[in-house]
Specification:
With 277 residues, this protein is of the alpha+beta class. It has 6 helices and 14 strands. 30% of the residues lie in helices and 23% in strands.
Length: 277
């Protein structure tokens, strides 16, 4: 089990490491070319550098912890503690000079996220949250942005409330939708909008495990409800499984009350992505 000073160490590590990586990324922001990966997503030398740097920092600070990362380590290791890294969430925005991208770190205990940290360097925002769930761990609780507590909105769906889509979920607009739509280009930020109380719902059609691990802890700690649109709970992860090609279509709502409102509108996204795992 974790030592008494473990969680302050985790938070300090996440804060200082993402700040150092973010400072370097800001210097290259909007000035790099991207390559296309096999799955159609983009990758730059900055993604690879940040992935390498974050993995090295974890190995130095937490040598007994495993690592799963977008660019290199895709198989879940046989360790109680594991970090999941997304070195740049929103690479297309990063390459085009759009200031909505971030660095995501999720800490898992026995395959389930219990802590998440997402830094958004160009916005000057840092989100983190603790979600003990059923882990049995003695740990802090709550979700924060720039060290201030955040909570989901209690507002009802209407045209004055925001709902976030991703590029692969725009089909929901074929029918009338009860909220104003926003599409930000960062899976983590789309979902964090709900945890921060700025939107009352969000959907991501094809996020990978590194897109959702950190925010899974943060948004639920803020009071949000997480729905797997393919009816398959993403956690706990399976030791030895390769997660590079597995999508996790996701709906997040500010209140459980609004799941019946939004789920029928976006459920077809999960059905389209559903495949054997």
């Amino acid at each position: 089990m974790a030592q008494p000073d473990f969680w302050p160490t985790v938070l300090t590590f996440a804060e200082t490491t993402t700040a150092q990586v973010g400072q370097k990324l800001l210097a290259d922001f909007g000035q790099v070319q991207a390559d296309v990966k096999a799955d159609g997503s983009l990758v730059t030398r900055c993604d690879r550098w940040a992935d390498d740097t974050l993995r090295a920092a974890i190995r130095e600070q937490f040598p007994s912890h495993g690592v799963l990362s977008e660019e290199v380590e895709h198989r879940f290791p046989a360790t109680d503690w594991c970090w999941i890294i997304d070195p740049i969430d929103g690479t297309t925005n990063f390459t085009q000079g759009i200031p909505v991208w971030g660095i995501s770190l999720g800490l898992l205990y026995r395959g389930v996220p219990v802590f998440g940290y997402v830094a958004m360097p160009p916005l000057g925002q840092a989100f983190y949250g603790y979600w003990p769930g059923e882990s049995g761990l003695e740990m802090p609780s709550g979700a924060y942005c720039n060290n201030r507590p955040i909570h989901t909105s209690g507002a009802a769906p209407d045209k004055n409330q925001f709902f976030s889509l991703c590029a692969r979920s725009t089909s929901v607009l074929a029918h009338p939708f009860p909220c104003k739509i926003r599409m930000l280009g960062s899976a983590a930020y789309n979902l964090l909008m709900v945890g921060a109380g700025w939107a009352i719902g969000a959907v991501e059609a094809t996020p990978k495990i590194w897109d959702i691990a950190a925010v899974w802890a943060i948004v639920q700690a803020a009071g949000a409800t997480w729905i797997a649109l393919d009816d398959s709970n993403p956690f706990p992860l399976t030791v030895g499984q390769d997660y590079v090609a597995t999508p996790y279509p996701t709906l997040v709502t500010a209140q459980a009350t609004w799941v019946p409102t939004f789920h029928p509108l976006v459920n077809h996204i999960g059905q389209r992505q559903r495949s054997p795992r």
